[in-house]
């Protein structure tokens, strides 16, 4: 169990590392859209290679197709990759300007608020979960965390509107996890859900990159540093790793370990490999810690009372969503 917890924290740190890589690539080519396409597209190529040797993944695709035809899942539930595409685009647009730490605080706040809303709607595979005082308190603490962290950066003229991009990306990530969970249940394979995610996201980013290139042109040159092109591979690794570990540590503990890993790695990157001359303020660290508290507080009910998914509730939620 302890080994699994440590690995879950490490995989959570991969999200922050991916944010840094994608942000640096976008800055190097001065094109966040192409950078996002490279990240998502390379991840899709890796998954397609694995698919050629992974029979359960191919069987999962057939099950999802049958589920769509039978109406067991709604067609928009396979579009979780759109939120993923927005997430990596946001990494390129704002991570380099805000710093990975502040970017990650905004992401965590968005995920917290989105998780509460989508649990209340019953969008996830576990069905509807009631809105509790602790969940509301967690959301309020998350908002306070963002306010605290942003207050430390005001003197450095960080554009406040730019903070909305990662926050909305966090909300989208919560929606993405919910609908990908539906696809995973139908496919019986986390790999299949991940493949759909990358395929849809890559398709969306191809369109966006082509439109942007038609207006501003393609990057005149590409950087030669190999590490700038590993964002997609990092995404495949931590998504696959989390899919394996969830059976050992459970969904809640995996999420908390992931957040802890993201924030710890984000602060470490900003301290050891800063992307700007802006220092790490105490309020940024405090906001990061407070964001972790928000996630913990919002999850207290589910750590004390085991939540058992009701298959009939899942079916009802799918019918309502369709």
User: What oligomeric arrangement do these chains adopt?
Assistant: single chain
Please provide the ordered H/E string of secondary-structure elements: HHHHHHHHHHHHH
DSSP summary, beta strand count: 0
Radius of gyration: 19 Å
Helix % is over 70%
Report the biggest beta sheet as strand number plus sense, adding barrel if it closes: none
* Helical run tally: 13
Count of domains: 1
The whole-number mean of residue pLDDT values reads 77
Shape: globular
Distance between the termini: 39 Å
Q: Show unreliable segments.
A: 302-322
Find the structural class using helix and strand composition. mainly alpha
Q: In percent terms, what proportion of residues is strand? A: under 5%
Account of the 3D structure:
By secondary structure, the protein is mainly α. The chain has one domain (2-321). Helix content is 79%, strand content 0%. The protein has helices spanning 2-29, 32-51, 55-70, 80-98, 100-121, 133-153, 160-187, 190-216, 231-249, 251-272, 282-298, 300-304, 311-321. Helix 1 (2-29) packs across helix 2 (32-51). The longest helix has 28 residues, at 2-29. 52% of the residues are buried.
Short recap of the structure:
This protein has helices at 2-29, 32-51, 55-70, 80-98, 100-121, 133-153, 160-187, 190-216, 231-249, 251-272, 282-298, 300-304, 311-321. By secondary structure, it is an all-alpha fold. The radius of gyration is 19 Å and the shape is globular.
